[in-house]
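Troubleshooting entry. The earlier prediction with FE2/S2 (inorganic) cluster gave an output that would not parse, so I re-checked the input for stray whitespace and re-submitted. Clean input:
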Amino acid sequence: MIEALRLTVNGDTQEIGVPSHYTLLEALRYVLGYTGSKQGCDKGDCGACTVLLDGQPALSCILPVQEAIDREVTTVEGLAGPDGPHPLQDAFDLTGAAQCGFCTPGILMSAASLLQRNQSPSNHEIREALSGNLCRCTGYTKIFDAVEIAARALRENRPAAEVVRA
Amino acid sequence: MLRLHPYRYHRPKELGEALELLREHRGDSMPIAGGTDLMPNMKHGLYTPSHLVALKGVEELHVIEERDGELVIGAAETLTRVASDPLIKRRLPGLARAAEGIAHPMIRNIGTIGGNVCLDTRCTYYNQTYFWREALGFCLKKDGDVCYVVKGGSRCVAAHSADTPPMLMTLGATVDLATADGARSVPLTKFFTADGIWNTVREPDELVIRVRVPIPSPRLRTSYQKVRERKSVDFPLLGIALAVEIDDSHLIESISLVVAGLGAKPRVVGGLDKIAGGQRLTPDIIEEVARRAHRQCNPLDNLIVDTDWRHAMVAVYVRRAFEEVLGQPLAAA
Ligand SMILES: Cc1cc2nc3c(=O)[nH]c(=O)nc-3n(C[C@H](O)[C@H](O)[C@H](O)COP(=O)(O)OP(=O)(O)OC[C@H]3O[C@@H](n4cnc5c(N)ncnc54)[C@H](O)[C@@H]3O)c2cc1C
Ligand code: FES
Ligand code: FES
């Protein structure tokens, strides 16, 4: 059964037709064409599909698409602002926090939500916030470094590149 | 990619409407709250209802308040909320901590306490894709008639794997249930059964509306100990909830201990009042309680972890629970 519903993704509201048994991730990737959110385990174990729902990180692979109605969905495509990449994106780039990159969109969303709530997170708070996002490549150290750099960049209101050089 | 079967997704706004939908489609419908248990299970072909009745939009299921000496928690409140709500943290810190240890932040943001209380049991031979289960041959719990855990067994022994119920049981919680035909209340200690296929007394078209927890005395100290492979994401391999009321001189006024994660039903460790009631909480008493818990538990090979090790951990984590309530290592107690 195809269901007509209205989704707001990255600030853009669209009326779409989706099979009623689709997850939010399937609607994003296969109906709307937002392929940034990754389909990893597809059952809640890995965090690659993490998006923000009204600013809170959620797993889109196990979320019925209807649960996104009347909520703001933010995917990695919506992270950068008009002036360029989000400081997290710059920090990931500068520190080498992404290797194969498959986990990166999900991790960026979890980290973005953390920095929205808390611009001076401790290392423990960063680990906790990212504890549902698995990475098979990096060993996490560079990722935690990147989040700390992005937090400083946001706090001090200067580019991540300057924070890295400092 | 794990595809779901086709279904209709109903989004009632009122409780009556939700209950009516469940009655109308009885046998071919299921309630869904956060879906963090049901969605993966449906992706594995373990449930294929044609109708899902979504609970998140039902106003009556959202509440956290103190009422008549009890803390009332609506079934659709998220685990993140239960873990962080100031009232729960103040009155029931053990429950907040048990909720905080569930899965990981994204799941706690969506998963609910009602869904946690109604969590399906888990087993190595059950929580697998249809392809996996078909390749081995289906098991007792779903689509088959053999048990791979207990050879020749005819009763499913899948493990109760939820983290809040053991703590709620030690706190004397009650669940309020309703169908389209009426309501009832069941103490949580009577809610679970030893049948791994369906391990609660809840009818398929019955909803958990709220959990009610008596406000404990300020002397009650609680601990929830969870054994798992990683500090995040994983379900409990063993869950131990302890609630003990002690006065300033460490005299035990009441004690309750629940061990979960082994069989289909969380086990209330029996006979503790006899050995510990009215006694001072000494290392000897703790050792005796740990021995009893160990003796009364009998883990099976239903999860991927060594059974003898899991059995040995019962006593170890009972001791750690006491260490937590005493706020100090046992040697110094
Ligand atoms: C990777 C991963 C890790 C996890 N780790 C843990 C863990 O460590 N500890 C743990 O306890 N759980 C864990 N879970 C399971 C699950 O996320 C939680 O138990 C959660 O609380 C379930 O709530 P829900 O609202 O998402 O339930 P749902 O999936 O919506 O529902 C679960 C079951 O309960 C029924 N149900 C839901 N609400 C009601 C109601 N109000 N009345 C009647 N029936 C209802 C549904 O029909 C379904 O059968 C994990 C899940 C995943 C995917
Ligand atoms: S793809 Fe959603 S958690 Fe792995
Ligand atoms: S960079 Fe490859 S999984 Fe994280």
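This one parsed fine. The two ends of chain B are 53 Å apart (CA to CA).
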